Amino acid sequence: MSDLYLIYKNMTRKPLRLFLTCFAIFIAFLIYGAVTTLKSALDAGIDLAADNRLVVVNKINFTQPLPIAYAQKVAAVEGVEHVTYANWFGGYYQEARNQIVAMAVEPESLLQVYEREIVLPLEQRAAWLGNRQGLIAGKNLAQRLGWKVGDRVPVSSNIFSHKEGGHTWDFVVEGIFTGSDPQHDTNSMYFHYKYFMETQSFGGDWIGWITLTTVDPAQNQRIADEIDNGFANSQAETDTSTEAAFSKAFIEQIGNIGLIIFGVVFMAFFTILILVGNTMALAVRERTGEIAVLKTLGFAAPRIFKMVLTESLLIALIGGLAGLGAAWLIVEGAKATMAQFLPNLVLDSGIALQALAFMLLLGLVTGLLPALNALRLNIVTAFNRG
Amino acid sequence: MSQDLLFQLNGVSKSFVKGKEEISIFSDLNLTIERGDFVAIMGPSGSGKTTLLNMLGGVDQPSGGEVSFDGARVDNLSESALTRWRAHNIGFIFQFYNLMPMLNAARNVELPLLLTKLSKAQRRKNVETALALVGLSDRAKHMPSEMSGGQQQRVAIARAIVSDPKLLLCDEPTGDLDRTTADEILEMLQLLNRDHGKTIVMVTHDPAAAKYANRTLHLDKGKFVQRELVA
Ligand SMILES: Nc1ncnc2c1ncn2[C@@H]1O[C@H](COP(=O)(O)OP(=O)(O)O)[C@@H](O)[C@H]1O
Ligand SMILES: [Mg+2]
Questions:
Q1: Which fold has domain B37-58+79-229?
Q2: Where are the domains of chain B?
Q3: Ranges under pLDDT 70 in chain B
Q4: Cα angle for residues A244, A249, A251 (degrees, 5° grid)
Q5: Major location, coarse class (chain A) (predicted)?
Q6: Touching check for B164 and chain A: CB below 8 Å?
Q7: Closest protein CA for atom 25 of ligand 1
C-alpha cells in the first residue's frame, strides 16, 4: 500500500460522484479541444499569409467590385513588384453542396504573386497559360473530386450566369498544383479571367480584388497609403491592407469567432470549476474525521495536503484527457468533410499541451482550498465536532 | 527507578479561550507514568480526561508546565516534530474505532507503517503478526462495515501496535461495546501490557474496565482526587 492507493480509494469511494465530476470535466475539454482546433484552423490562414503581400479591395465592402483599370494604376506605384487580380466565382461541382473555392484570375501574374503557394510542373504551366478554357486545381481539390490532368469538367456558379444560359462553365483541367509548404491550402481552383468575362452575362470589366507584392515589407504602409490616396474621391475608393489583416477581416465578417469561442470556453470552464471545486470541498469535508485520524497516527500535514491535491489533479486529468481524446476523434472525423473550408483542421500538440496545462490548473484550483483545509485541520477541534 | 520513568507531567495547565472567557480545564497537574504501567483515568464527563490524553499523545499542547517523555521535553516541540514523535512512540485507540471505511482490515492495520521505512515484505509480516495477536487473521480482507464493533476495535488495536510503539493511549475503548465484548477488548489490552510490555493509559468511565488497569486515577475539576474503590 502507498499514498497513491489511499488517494485512489478516496477517489473511488463514491463512484457515481466520481463519474459525474469526470464527465463534467470531459465535456469541458471536449469543447475546449474542438473549439480551439477550429480557431487555430481559422488563424492558420492568417499566419500563412505572406508579409509582403497587400490586398486592395473596395472601401465600401470587399464584396463590391473594382474597375479593372485599377490594376494598371496600382502597378505604377513605386515599390510594387507584381500585381494580380481575381474574381470570386462562388463555384460548385455538380451539386450545390459540393462547394469549390474557385476564382477567375489573370494567370501569369497570379503565378508570380503566389509563386510559393501555387507550384506547377513547367509543362502544365505552359498548357494552362495556352488554353483559355483551362483551369488549375489544388491537389486536395483534385483528389476530392477525382480530377486528372486532361479531364473536361463542368463547374457551376451560384452567383453568375452563362451568356448562353445556365450557370455552368466547361473547363479543361490543365494542371494540378501543390504548395511549397505542406501547410499551404490546395483546396482551390483558378481559371482565366478573360474567358470568364467573355462568357458571363453581366458584362462590364471589373474585378473583385487586387493582390500585389511589394519589394520590401517595410514599405507596405507607404504603398498602401499611396494606393488608397490615389483612388480617393474616385468612383470606387479602395482599402489596402496586408493579406494577414485581410484574412482576419474576412473571418470577422463571418462573425466574431474569437469572442464567441472565448465566451463558450470561459463559461464552460467557469461552470466546471465551480462544480468540481464544490464537489472536492464536499468530499474532503465529509472526510474531516478520517483526516484527523491520519494526523493523529502521525501523517504530516503537508503529506495530507499533497494527497488531497493529487486526488483533484487526477480527477481533472482523467476527465480532461478523455475529453481531449474525444475532441481529437471528432476533429479527425470532421477533417475530410471540412477540408475545403478549413485545410488546417488539426488538434496538434500545441493545443494538446495547452489543454493539459488547463487540466493541471483546474486540478490545482479545485483542490487547493480543500487541501489547505486538510492541511490546517486541527485534530482536537475536528474530533470535538465529530 | 528514573530509567523506568516514561511520562512526566510537571505543573501542567490547560485552558481554552471561548469567546471572551478563558476556561481553565486544569492548572498545576502533576503525573508520572512508569514504563510498563497500565493506568486507568476516570472522571465525570467534561472533567478533561480526553484533553489530558490528547496532551500525553502530543495531539494537543499544554498552556503551561512541562511534559517529558523518555527524559526529553515534548511540550515545546514543533507541530511537525510532534507528528513524527507520535508516529514513533504512540498507538491510539478510540471509542469509535476510527477505521478508514474504504480500506480492508489488513490495510487499516498497515496504515501507520506507511510512516516507517520498512520493506513491503516486512510490512506484510508486521500486519500479519498484529492481526494474529488480536485474533483476526481470518478477517484480513474484510471491510470495516462487514465487521462487528468488537472486531473493528480489535483491528484498531492491531493498528495501534503494528509499528511497536512504547505507549498505547485509549480513549473510552469499550464505551461503544457490550459487556462481553468489552471484557475481551480489556483482556487484550491487559495481555499487551503484561506480555508485550506496552505502557497503557486508558480513559474510561466504566469502573469494571478500570479494574483491568494496575492503578486508577480520578480526575475531577482539574485535579486528581483520592477515592475509595467501589466494590
Ligand atoms: N477545543 C476546545 N475548545 C474549548 N473547549 C474545549 C475544547 N476541548 C475541550 N473543551 C472543554 O474542555 C472540557 C473537557 O473536555 P474533555 O477533555 O473532552 O472532557 P472529558 O473527555 O473528560 O469528557 C469540556 O468542558 C470541553 O467542553
Ligand atoms: Mg472524552
A1: Rossmann fold (3.40.50)
A2: 37-58+79-229
A3: 1-3, 227-231
A4: 95
A5: membrane
A6: no
A7: B46
